[in-house]
From TrEMBL:
GO cellular component: membrane
Transmembrane segments: 28-46, 58-80, 130-152, 164-191, 211-233, 254-274, 304-324, 344-366, 378-401, 421-442, 448-468
Organism lineage string: Bacteria, Pseudomonadati, Pseudomonadota, Gammaproteobacteria, Moraxellales
Location within or outside the cell: Membrane
Pfam families: AA_permease
UniProt protein name: Amino acid permease/ SLC12A domain-containing protein
Length: 473
């Protein structure tokens, strides 16, 4: 669909003056790390190893990091030039078309809103393992109230809370990698083994024990593990000096994530036979983190990881409520929702959008009572697929933006931040994202979520058509 913007549109730098610019580089980096480091790493990393083998898992996460880096370079160029709240929804409107921008905004809202309830439910279930006599609904309401309060207080309070919640996860991962490396080289005791484990487990069953195909089959899971990095773009409109802080945050967060994920996979693969790395159940005790910590001799390993996963869930819910409410706010700013959704508190937070998004999380809370495994799996598939759709749109937007930039007589040197190797960067990012989407379409377990996403996307385009028609009549 052609863009409705004028050729001079690249000069039209957006501004989100009503929302306060209160985030620094450290807030952006931790927001990105906090969005990406979650249960997918603590519980899901072992599953990827079990499906692909150690070397295959390392390749999968390296490719996932590369794709995320390509997409974030594209997003960085757009976010520095146009630091608007609404981010890639607004970019899609300008550089793909109004209907696609509308769809992308709602799809990203759906991604986070659909998972909010499951985050609260999962955290409550973990608390019940400590306090079995306390109703799960009490913990759910407590966690929801905490996240809601942090979001409505102020942008600065939200950023600070996310910084410290994310820091818990970051410290745990760093500690895990360092202790794991010490065990690998025999510097510290590990599971009563007479000699250092070294890296023998990595290729003990061959380079690819289950073939090469599982590497591509798990790409949707791996890409979803890196999701959350795009929160930097959402937060650009509330960031101090975005031209300086956004590029710094993108580079810092992507490389840290790559080191954390690949480092974790290497440690788990070296210390555990790959058949034992996967989860035997959804319980915390089957996490490869718990197993390695126990073998090293860390006391209360299961309790430590349970606490860390609870903070990971709350961090994801905190970031998710922030991102989804900003998307709803941006729709209201563009008159595609009633103006009440753009209402701000004195501290500059979109109060109505936050409240409505919280109510949107209610269906996810039902997952504990009604077919939890089915609902969780399909919500994961929906969230992963919609996230990749957003990433695909970011690559197309940057490609179209740069072409318009050149056509209007400007040069690369005039950009405050330019994604390198244009047009290779957006094209490669687009191709990898499309391949990831196809991997979902060929997975029978993911098909219900895949068709649901296609249906939602179609409804977005239809509703935009009637909305636009009514406004023009």
């Amino acid at each position: 669909m052609p863009s409705s913007q004028s050729p001079n549109d690249p000069l039209d730098q957006g501004n989100s003056a009503p929302l306060k610019r209160a985030m620094s580089t450290r807030h952006l980096v931790m927001l990105s790390l906090g969005g990406a480091i979650g249960t997918g790493l603590f519980l899901g990393s072992g599953e990827v190893i079990a499906q692909t083998g150690p070397v295959g898992a390392i390749i999968s996460y390296f490719l996932g990091g590369l794709i995320a880096y390509l997409v974030m370079l594209c997003l960085g160029e757009l976010a520095v030039h146009m630091p608007v709240s609404g981010s890639f929804g607004e970019y899609s409107t300008r550089y793909i078309g109004p209907a696609t921008g509308y769809m992308i905004t709602w799809v990203y809202w759906l991604t986070w809103t659909a998972t909010l309830g499951t985050e609260f439910t999962a955290a409550a279930l973990l608390m019940q393992e400590w306090f079995p006599h306390v109703s799960m609904w009490i913990w759910t309401l407590i966690f929801a109230a905490i996240v809601f309060t942090l979001n409505i207080s102020s942008t600065r309070m939200f950023a600070e809370s996310e910084f410290w919640l994310a820091l818990v996860k970051v410290v745990t991962v760093i500690g895990f990698i360092l202790l794991g490396l010490l065990a690998i080289f025999g510097i510290i005791h590990y599971n009563s083994q007479p000699s250092a484990p070294l890296f023998n487990n990595l290729v003990s069953h061959g380079w690819f024990p289950k073939g090469v195909f599982p590497i591509f089959a798990t790409m949707l899971i791996v890409n979803f593990a890196f999701s959350g990095t795009e929160l930097i773009g959402v937060a650009a409109g509330e960031t101090e000096n975005p031209a300086k802080n956004v590029p710094k945050a993108i580079n810092a967060s992507i490389w840290r994530l790559l080191i954390f994920f690949v480092g974790t996979i290497i440690v788990i693969s070296a210390l555990l036979p790959y058949e034992q790395a996967g989860l035997s159940s959804n319980s915390v005790s089957s996490s490869p983190f718990v197993t390695v910590f126990k073998y090293i001799g860390i006391p209360y390993a299961e309790d430590i990881i349970r606490f860390v996963i609870i903070t990971a869930l709350l961090s994801a819910a905190n970031s998710g409520l922030y991102a989804a409410s900003r998307m709803m706010w941006s729709l209201s700013e563009k008159k595609q929702l009633p103006t009440v959704f753009a209402k701000l508190t004195k501290s500059g937070t979109p109060i109505i959008a936050i409240i409505v998004t919280m109510f949107g999380a209610v269906p996810g809370l039902l997952s504990e009572q009604f077919a939890p495994e089915t609902i969780f799996k399909n919500l994961l598939g929906v969230a992963a697929f919609t996230m990749v759709i957003v990433w695909t749109a970011i690559c197309v937007c940057q490609f179209n933006f740069r072409r318009q930039w050149y056509k209007s007589g400007h040069t690369k040197e005039e950009l405050k931040f330019a994604a390198p190797l244009f047009p290779i960067t957006p094209i490669l990012g687009f191709i990898f994202c499309v391949i990831t989407c196809i991997s979902m379409a060929v997975d029978p377990q993911m098909l219900p979520g895949f068709y649901s996403c296609l249906g939602f996307i179609t409804l977005c385009y239809i509703s935009h058509f009637f909305l636009y028609r009514n406004k023009t009549n």
